[in-house]
Specification:
- The protein is mainly alpha-helical.
- The chain folds into two domains: 98 residues, no CATH class; 120 residues, no CATH class.
- 73% of the residues lie in helices and 0% in strands.
- Helix 5 packs antiparallel against helix 6, helix 5 runs parallel beside helix 7 and helix 6 runs parallel beside helix 8.
- The two termini are 36 Å apart.
- Pfam families: RINT1_TIP1.
- It comes from Mionectes macconnelli (McConnell's flycatcher).
- InterPro entries: RINT1_Tip20.
Length: 228
Amino acid sequence: LNKPEWYLTQVLMWIGNHAKFLDDKIQPILDKVGSPLNAGLEFSRALVMLILEKLAADIPCLLYDDTLFCHLVDEVLLFERELYSVHGYLSSFPSCMHILSEESCFQRWLTVEKKFALQKMDSMLSSEAAWISQYKDITDVDEMKVPDCAETFMTLLLVITDRYKNLPTASRKLQFLGLQKELVDDFRIRLTQVMKEETRASLGFRYCAILNAVNYIATVLADWADNV
């Protein structure tokens, strides 16, 4: 259960290793009889169906082990990325995202995603470099003087989007968007709490850093507004 990468990688190897044979030997036979099938894609589809069976059997066994469940989700997302980008798998075919979208698994994924995001926010705001810009010494890069915590937070949101963007239904994606909105509001509250501690020194380093953070986050969210 702790090594889903073993069978996921094995399947990717089988697909890659058989591609030339299927294209050179099997596809001409299909073409000759007028079949619309693509030999390579059908081979991939059959192997993915095996993976779906395996996942359906494994997921109930690790649903409540955060570490194993997170590892499985990470490996499945890596597998899906390579399947589509390297091997040309079709979005209309069955995929692992359908298994991750099933109710019990999906709710667990959301819960774990939120838990680890909040832990990340705790660590980024307690860091000694939280209010310092990574690019403070490079003037032409650092016009907005973005503190490290704000940049790390927006990267966190971007990573979450990248993880859920291939979910098969809009309703599931919207639930993840709801999680991101919660995280933005949580970050806003945390900034407000820090700001209240700094009101006596409103021209101080940290107070200005908070204002820069808010400006940066608002600007990036506005840029993302066109992303359906």
